[in-house]
Write a structure and sequence with these properties.
mainly alpha, three-stranded antiparallel sheet, 216 residues
Length: 216
């Protein structure tokens, strides 16, 4: 479990804590696609009552991170090929633009930070740790995109990551990765060279290649 449960102080703070903790678990692929969740189980995990658990689930359903059936079953989504392709296209559109906007502010300290994070990605791959791989991979992208200073656009990208989290876990299992993403090195090289067309191509390839394979 990623979080350390704390005593429930107020319904609002408890709800927000459950929402953020569960959101992180879904985004990082800790929960596989199609896995059912119960309010009782969520409440037990986070040591809260049913009300904050229900409110957190409601928000995550609205964001597309969870599905709610007519019978009341809550689960992580199992995405169709069409949905995967749609989300891959969104990643391409949004993240290429974020990277392009970040480039003028990509000074050496940022490039060195990205290099360091990519080292953590490599370690996750070496240890065959799917959750650590997804977490560090997203940290790599988020660190770059924060330099774009486009918070609304970044929030949209994170919503896509959230919807894809369980599917990315399934994708990792299919890829059986043995080395870090090749395109991360190309992203770093393009930033060093100030090569915006090269950066846009590297980001587009990185965020769509694996998902396209999953949908094929």
């Amino acid at each position: 479990m990623l979080i350390n449960p704390r005593p429930e102080s107020s319904p609002a703070s408890a709800h927000d804590r459950v929402y953020r903790g569960l959101r992180t678990r879904i985004m990082h692929g800790e929960i596989g696609p199609g896995q059912a969740l119960t309010l009782r189980g969520i409440g037990k995990d986070f040591e809260v009552s049913m009300t904050p658990a229900r409110e957190a689930v409601r928000r995550l359903v609205a964001e597309g991170a969870l599905t709610l059936s007519s019978s009341g079953r809550v689960a992580t989504p199992e995405l169709s090929n069409e949905r995967i392709e749609e989300l891959a296209a969104l990643r391409s559109l949004i993240e290429v633009e974020l990277a392009s906007r970040a480039m003028p502010r990509a000074h050496m300290a940022l490039i060195e930070r990205l290099q360091s994070i990519n080292g953590a990605v490599s370690e996750a791959v070496a240890h065959k740790d799917a959750v650590a791989y997804i977490r560090t991979n997203l940290e790599f992208h988020r660190t770059l995109y924060l330099r774009a200073q486009a918070p609304a656009m970044l929030a949209m990208a994170e919503t896509v990551w959230l919807q894809l989290g369980p599917t990315m876990r399934a994708l990792y299992g299919r890829l059986r990765r043995t080395e870090p993403p090749h395109y991360h090195r190309l992203i770093i090289a393009a930033l060093r060279a100030g090569d915006e067309p090269g950066l846009r191509l590297a980001v587009r390839s990185d965020v769509t290649q694996g998902l396209k394979m999953l949908a094929s």
